[in-house]
Design brief:
This protein is of the alpha/beta class and 200 residues long. Helices cover 37% and strands 18% of the residues. The protein has five helices and six strands, in the order βαβαββαβαβα. α1 packs across α5. The mean pLDDT is 94. This is NAD(P)H-dependent oxidoreductase. It comes from Kribbella sp. HUAS MG21. GO terms for molecular function: oxidoreductase activity.
Length: 200
């Protein structure tokens, strides 16, 4: 079983990412479930605008697309900006739109029998809105979204420290992150044993 964690931070490597730090809680939980985990920080890549799986020369998305197809579990991790997912997360979803028309050898949409969850950080509120936006889009593409397959941390209204600058709320975020990992692994195994058939 393989998982892909897609970090949609706006900070290029090697800058420390609050989103990455919380995502690592989920990574640890998945690894405890014997899941092999790959990671990618999208801002380090050149992702051309578009809605296809390959936008031509200089586009790094095809390699990410390959990683998605190798993985039965997808974790999308994003910061909150102005109450919304990051622009990098939006670019990712736009590029994943192409998967709506891609099918496997059995005629199923390629995202069928794959599960997905969401990690959100931010020193402002809006986490549930961000989770809903990303989960809804991934469901449209064909991913299965298990119950409570999310975790988040936010500071609440007004300015304040970021995730890595305070210990406030970390215990709750870690607990829900571990539950998220367990739920994703369980649902992925259930689908492996009883896959969703191709649409009639």
């Amino acid at each position: 079983m393989r998982a892909l964690v897609v970090n949609c931070t706006l900070k290029p490597s090697p800058a420390r990412s609050n989103t990455d730090q919380l995502a690592e809680v989920v990574v640890d939980g998945l690894q405890r479930e014997k899941v092999e985990v790959e990671r990618v920080r999208l801002v380090d890549l050149t992702l051309k605008p578009g809605v296809s799986s390959d936008e031509g020369a200089g586009d790094d998305w095809p390699a990410v697309h390959d990683q998605l197809l190798r993985s039965k579990i997808l974790v999308v991790a994003t910061p909150t900006w102005l109450g919304r997912p990051s622009s990098v997360a939006q670019r990712m979803l736009e590029r994943m739109d192409a998967m709506l028309s891609e099918t496997d050898d059995a005629g199923r949409p390629v995202a069928y029998n794959r599960v997905a969850g969401v990690v959100v950080t931010g020193n402002e509120d809006g986490a549930h809105h961000v989770i809903s936006e990303i989960s809804g889009a991934l469901g449209d593409i064909g991913y299965t979204i298990p119950g409570q397959s999310w975790t988040y941390w936010n500071r609440g209204p007004g300015p304040g420290p970021s995730y890595t600058e305070t210990a406030e709320g970390h215990d709750w975020s870690a607990k829900t992150g571990r539950a998220m990992a367990s739920n994703l692994a369980a649902a992925a195994r259930a689908l492996a044993d009883n896959p969703i058939p191709a649409p009639s």
